[in-house]
Each structure stands twice: as C-alpha cells, then as structure tokens.
Specification:
homodimer, 2 domains, Lyase, Ornithine Decarboxylase, Chain A, domain 1, EC 5.1.1.1 (chains A, B), about 400 residues, TIM Barrel, 12 helices, Ala_racemase_N (chains A, B), alpha/beta
C-alpha cells in the first residue's frame, strides 16, 4: 500500500505535505553514485554486478540499467523472483545454500533465469546437484572464498576448495567461479587500510581461482566486492566482476569509512517535531527505530552519529545535531556531547531530514521511496520496495 | 503476501516444511501471557489497555479480547485505522501530536472511533482544538506526564501542566486524563528496583491528576504502564488504567529485566543452517538482522544474548548458544565466550529457533506469524501483521 495514498487518498505533491515518517530518495544523488562506480569499473575493465539487497526496488534497478537489464546480485530468493519478474535474467544469489533454497533456486533456473548459487562444502554441492536433477536443469554455483575471516567461505589455500570443485563436477554442477566479500572493510577508515583490504580481497580471489584452475577446474568468474573495496581498489588484475550495493545510496557508516561525503547520501528519513524538552536539550521527533532501524553502525567509528544526523527539510545538515536515542516511534534529537553548537529552535510540526547510519537497514523499514530532486520540494514519484524471503 | 504461499503456492503444514527465516508464534504461551496480566489487573481493579505496537495483528488482538473488542493503545495512526476497521472503537494514540496527525486523528474520531490523543504543550492543545473544529468533532486528549525522565511529558509539579489543562479547555478539547510511561524500567533488573519504579510511576501519575483536579480540571483517567512496572506494581491506588504491549510475547530483554522466563517467550525466528566454520566455532544460519532486527537490547544487561538465544526446532534452548554476529541475511551462531558448553553438531539444512532480544523489533521484520502450539510441529495458521504509518 502506498503510504501517502493510505493517509490522504492521493499522493502528496511536496515534501511539506508528506505524512511522516517517510523515506526520501534524492534521485540526483542516486544517479551520481551509480555513475561514479560504473565509470570506475568500466575504466578497470571489470563487470559491475550491483547488489540489490540495499534498494530492493525495480525502479532503482532500472536507474542502474537504463537501457535494459544487466547482471545483479541478490540476498534472498524473493529478491531473485521479484527482479526476474521484472526482466532480470542474470542473477547471483550470494547467500549460502540450504536444501529448501536449492530446490527453489532450481525452479527459477528452470523458468529461464540464469540464477547462480553460492556454497562452500561438498555436501552443498551434492544438494544442489540433486535439486538440479529433480528440476531438470544444470545448476551453476560459485564457491565462496573467505578473504578476511568475516563470515563463510573457504580460504584460498584450504584443501577443501579443490574437494568442493571435484564434488561439483561429480554432482553435475557447473562451476561458475569463485566469489568473495571483504566484509571486514566496513570497520576500516583510512585510505591506506582500505587500499590494503581491496588488494587482500583481490589476492585471495585470484589465488583461489588459480588453485582451482591448476587442478583442472574451469573458473570463469572471479567475483569480489564490498562498497569500500570497490571504491578503493587500485589494481583489479585477475578479477572479472565487482559486487556492491550500498554505494547506490551511501550512508553515515560509509561516510565514516571514508567512501563518501554526507552530500552523497541519497536517502533520508523525513520526520516531524512532536515535542520539546528544552531543559534537557531535547527535541522529540516522530522517527524512532521503526523508521530509522536499530542500526548503530557508527557507534564503533571515530564519530558516533547516534541513530542519524539531522538536516533541515531541504537537506542542509544542522552541525552536530543527532538522534541521540530512539524508541519505537520516538527519536530524541540533541546536540552531540561536547559540541559548542546550540540546539536549533524548531517548533512542533517542523520537519527535518535524518541521514541514516545504514541505508540497507533503514530503507528496509519502509514500504516505498518518496523520490525527490536536489533543488525542489516536489515528490516526483513513489517507488515501492519489496521485502520478505 | 503470505510468505509460504509465495514460495510454495500453498501454506506449509509443519515447521519442518516452512521456508526460513520465518516468525513463529506459540499461541499457548501467548494465551498464558495474556491471562497472566489480565488476571493481575482484574485483581487490582485496573483496566488493562493492551498496546498493539508489539503484535500489530488483529488475530492477536482478538486473542486478547475473545468476546469482543476492548480498549487498546496504538503507536501509529495506521495502527489506529487498522484496528478501527476491525471493530476496535476505544483507542489511545500514545505518541505526541503534530499538525498532520491531529487532522488525521480527528477524521477517525469523525468516523465514530473514540480516538484519544497525547500532548504536553498549550500549542498542541490549540492544534488539536483547531483540527477538531475543522472536522466537526470534540477532541479528547491525554496530557503526557514524565515520571522518570525517559522521553516526553511534563513532570507532575511543572506549572505548565495546569497551563496545558487551561489551554485544552479554551480550545474546546476534552481532557481524557493523564498518561505516563515508566520507560526507564527496561534498564532495571532487580525486583526491588522494579517495585520502586512502579511505585514512582504510580505516584507521578496520581500527583499529576491531583494537581489538575485541584485546579478544577476533571481528570477521569489515570493511565500508567510498561511491561515491567505492570508486572511488579504492588499498589495501584489512584491508577485507573494500565498499558503494556510486549508482555503478550515477552523477549530476552524482558527475561533479563526479570519479568518472564525463557519458557514464556512466545515468538521465535525459525532459521536454517547454511554453513559451518568449525575452526572458528561458528555455525552460519539464514537469519541475519533482516530477520532478527538490529536490536541489541541485552548488550546492556548482565547477560548479553547477542542477537538471540538459539533453541532446537522444538524450542529447547541449547545452553549458551547465541547469535553472536549478524549481517543482513547471515547469522553467526557460536557458544557464548567463557562457556564450557560445546557447539552442537548441526548439519547444513538443520533448523533452529532463535529467541529474540526485543519482540517489537523482531516481529516488525516479518509479514506474518506462523502460529504453532507447544507440543506439535503443525502450523495452525498464518496471522498477518500490519506495518507503516
């Protein structure tokens, strides 16, 4: 259901008329962010396979691919099905496989979608092989490589890597290639460390592909990616494909990492002042964790942004004004401790925009994007989001 | 969309057949939790006005009121509209008022719903008065009292309290009464402190009502509430109404506070093992923060439960097994640091249940409840949840 329809019977025409809390998407910033990484990858001769887990929107995907569907990455099979319904045919499902997802993935493959799955064990290889036979298709799978201890996958020198390659062959599964994700890069915040993380990711991926090829396995795709390493990689020799998702919107965590400025952050939560506690230096707004998410990703960074950084309704940041606490439908806005800035004088009913810590988490709290441009208060469109699994 | 329909074309009949991640609701535990607080309030002669912000489900509300709609509390006007559509007529919207919500609330009142709003300033009194006149209804408003510095409201001895009462009268708004919420009780964890917090909440509410009555304002309702204080209050003299929401489901935060046992927690997230890292002591499951929420409410408690406590598929807790880290669609399950317990041997495809930190936040990540009973693996029903604002 469209939220503005829900409230008013028709879509709000301006930011000022929008019911709050609402998720705003600045399409000029989105376009700039999309162009920045696609030119960077084009220069390096690497395919960009955007991760749709952040946006979960066909309208955003079409903004990334204005002249027709291209390769994408997804985090759920519901995303795969949604984007397939909208014409995307080259999809990598980048979460480890279980029996029920293997069967469901093969149904999509049977329907003509080149859906590739991810695994890191011989038992998963046998599982997807069986699912492929049951569906009457030849599965295609990536072997997950662990480049930094972040999550799943095998290290490039793990003998199990070759065993998985062998098991795939025996199970009748095509080896799509290897895939790795430098998830630990999110905790860095100097260019030197980010460049090193990108090189480490590349080196692990290339070493794994080399080990597989040395034992007779074709390994066509060498896929790496995280938004920080995608933007800081200086050399991608041997890499064929880059995955990233949050780069489309960016957020305060990515700003803390050093990948973007606050002016690049394309989404914000529009909120309304609903109370004041001047004796405590508090302004209460109607965006709590239900609208902002519980994500506190900047808490571990040099600058803790609370639950978000507060801007005026046009998007200009109030210096050091953050959402310092959040309950379900209330945000407490206050000046950052130690700052010399004063609390702005905002009356009940005033609107503010809040830049989020983590775009993936904040966007997932909303049904749709209210699309705006940089220099206008018009709501140009409502772009729905999909959800679920 | 019903998730099981989405995947299979028909609802899964058993827990084992359910696609994961999925939100399970044990209706026997729900019924027991509902009965516990309603008997307690009946004994004390206090009206229970359940807060629907946790469940957001007409099926759960009907479980609380099996013989017909009763009084409820809501956190959004979308909830008010949803429950009104399902026959609820006595609704308190317990979030501070803004101009757009005042107008929308009065539309519901015009439609015959006894919707009461909340405010703490003369300007909000004038705002709702104007909205009432515009809609052709007499508004009814609670004055919010601050009993513990948690969020909004006026202290009982604040002279502005009487000024708001006067402003309501001048604006043609009926004073419904006073309303307070002991939100700081969530950070306590001894019976003595909880009993004291409940008494503090009662005393502040009664003092505010007394101050209003002493200056000629009728103050029919004295409304207090939080799940911890509702269960620990020893004396509710002068209180007419109790509000609580999370008591229906309970969660690990409430367990840490000491209000419930883990056997009372009625919701859990069903997840599947999708990977293993034995050398790190990790099991990877397909429930990350998208399924569990980013809530880390137990981090500040004596026992940190990570992103949740892991049980077998029947609901039996694995001692000291927690979701230690979460990314969007991955949970890392590990034994709590310092524990002597061993990691259980769970194969790829095995299912587990995860008890959540915070029921409100975890439930809001899901479209529906898969309803189960204590001693059966049958899915008895799918109860949809509403969302948005």
């Amino acid at each position: 259901m469209n939220r503005t329809d829900h409230q008013n019977g028709e879509a709000a025409a301006t930011i000022g008329a929008l019911a709050t809390p609402a998720l705003l998407l600045d399409k000029d910033r989105l376009d700039r962010n999309l162009a920045r990484l696609s030119s960077r990858m084009a220069e390096q001769g690497v395919v960009l396979r955007p991760h749709m887990k952040t946006a979960k929107s066909i309208d955003v995907a079409q903004r990334a691919y204005p002249s027709g569907a291209g390769p994408i990455t997804v985090s759920t099979l519901a995303e795969a099905e949604y984007f397939a319904q909208h014409g995307f045919r080259d999809i990598t499902y980048a979460v480890g496989l279980a029996p029920h997802t293997a069967a469901r993935a093969m149904r999509l493959r049977k329907a003509g979608v080149d859906l590739k799955v991810l695994l890191d064990s011989p038992e998963q290889a046998r599982m997807v092989g069986a699912a492929g036979r049951a569906a009457g298709v030849i599965p295609s799978a990536f072997i997950e490589i662990d480049c930094d201890g972040h999550r799943g996958g095998l290290t490039a020198d793990d003998p199990k890597l070759i065993a998985v390659g062998v098991a795939l062959g025996e199970a009748g599964v095509k080896l799509a290639g290897i895939l790795t994700h430098a998830g630990e890069s999110y905790s860095l915040f100097t260019p030197e460390a980010l460049i090193a993380a990108a090189e480490n990711e590349r080196a692990a991926a290339v070493a794994a592909a080399k080990a597989l090829r040395a034992t007779g396995h074709e390994c066509p795709v060498v896929s790496v990616g995280s938004t920080p390493t995608a933007h800081f990689a200086e050399d991608l020799t041997g890499v064929t494909e880059m995955r990233a998702g949050v780069y489309m919107f960016f957020d305060l965590v990515m700003h803390g990492v050093g990948v973007c400025t606050t002016d690049d952050i394309a989404i914000s939560v529009l909120a309304t002042v609903i109370g004041k506690k001047p004796e405590k230096g508090w302004i209460l707004v109607d965006a709590g964790w239900m609208a902002l998410s519980r994500d506190r990703g900047t808490a571990a960074q040099p600058v803790d942004q609370g639950y978000g950084l507060v801007c005026d309704v046009a998007g200009k940041i109030y210096p050091d004004l953050i959402v310092s606490q959040a309950s379900q439908e209330h945000g407490i806005v206050a000046i950052r401790p130690g700052s010399a800035h004063a609390l702005p004088n905002l009356p009940i009913g005033a609107k503010v925009r809040i830049l989020p810590n983590h775009a993936c988490a904040t966007a997932s709290q909303h049904e749709s994007y209210s699309v705006v441009s940089a220099d206008s208060d018009a709501i140009e469109a409502q772009w729905p989001r999909m959800r679920g699994w």
